[in-house]
Amino acid sequence: MDLAIYSQAKTALAEYKTVDEVKNFRDKALAIEAYAKQANDYDLERDAAVARVRAERKCGELLRDSEKAKGNRNTGNFGGRNELPPKETKTLSDMGITKDQSSKWQKLAAIPDNEFEEAVSLPGSKPSTSHMLKKDDPEPKRMDSNALWLWGTLRDMRSKKLFNKKLSDTTGEWTEAMSDDALTIINQLKEWINE
Predict the structure, then answer these.
(1) Structural domain contains residue 109
(2) How many CB atoms lie within 10 A of CB 129?
């Protein structure tokens, strides 16, 4: 296939009607993307990535539509079929598609057109299916800074091997005020741990 076709992936993909055709196009785009990366040709790498992502979206649309079609076969009059039984349907494995790819590509196909076009058109970035789908993932909860500090302090105590020494060796040079303060803190810590 000619590289000019890849630069016009949106138009070229409209001609394909089967998952096999689109998957073949996607695989070729992926190969060009890998070649361009090795050749340090970022523009070609980005163009191939756009073609690949467009193909993955089109595969997702075709896979989604074929799943819907399977669900509508037994809806004819009197419980009969609306259509003739389909020719033997290819499995994902037959088409060289994993269940994970099928799921991701169908999610990619569900992204509204304007959001998808905006994502593949961002200047300077190489689009990817995974990156586009991560926008839907919730932000991970940030850890409380006190929890992180406490964990770090306990690890510091262990790394300095404080637990291998007698407490009196470590606290022997404290003043009476420091010892009193430490005892108060230790009692508070005991209560906190036992809550």
Answers:
(1) yes
(2) 19
Pair 23, 95: CB distance under 8 Å: yes
In a shared domain, residues 52 and 123? yes
From the number of C-beta atoms within 10 Å of its C-beta (0-12, 13-18, 19+), residue 41 rates as middle
Structural domain ending residue among the three candidates 95, 114, 134: 134
Domain count, the chain: 2
Domain carrying residue 86: 3-134
For residues 9 and 39, state if they share a domain: yes
* Predicted confidence (pLDDT) at residue 35 exceeds the cutoff of 90: yes
Q: Residue 151: its pLDDT value, please? A: 85
Whether 75 and 16 share a structural domain: yes
185 has pLDDT over 70: yes
Which contiguous run of DSSP H or E holds residue 165? none
Q: Tens digits of per-residue pLDDT, 79-138?
A: 555 555 455 578 888 888 899 999 999 999 999 999 888 888 887 778 888 888 886 556
**CA-CA-CA-CA torsion sign (168, 169, 171, 176):** positive
Rounded to 10 degrees, what is the CA torsion of 48, 50, 55, 56? 110
The count of other CB atoms within 10 Å of the CB of residue 133 is 16
Q: Which residue carries 């510091």 as its tokens?
A: 156
The pTM score is 0.58
Cβ proximity of 89 and 50 under 8 Å: no
